[in-house]
Amino acid sequence: MEPFFDFVRHYWWLIFPLSGLFGGWARSWSKASERRHRRRVELYKLKNAAADVEQASRSEVQALLEGHDAVNRR
After folding, report:
1. 23-33 burial by CB neighbour count: b if 16+ within 10 A, else e?
2. Of 31, 37, 47, 56, which one's alpha carbon is 20 to 30 angstroms from that of 64?
3. What mean pLDDT do residues 9-30 have?
4. What is the pTM of this model?
5. First to last CA, the chain
6. What is the C-alpha separation between 70 and 59, in angstroms, rounded?
């Protein structure tokens, strides 16, 4: 354990450049997480938009069939 403490005693100043290095790494990790989150939100919106369009399409088809049935009854 003594060699470790000797290293720390002589090179304590390495904390400053290493903290900048770790800070940059943490920032890039945070940006990547934000990009992943945005992509997931976009995919969620697209999936829900597709479901809404499908629902509207079903209602339009139902209205069309009812109109067709009304013509057939006449």
Report:
1. eeeeeeeeeee
2. 47
3. 94
4. 0.52
5. 98
6. 17
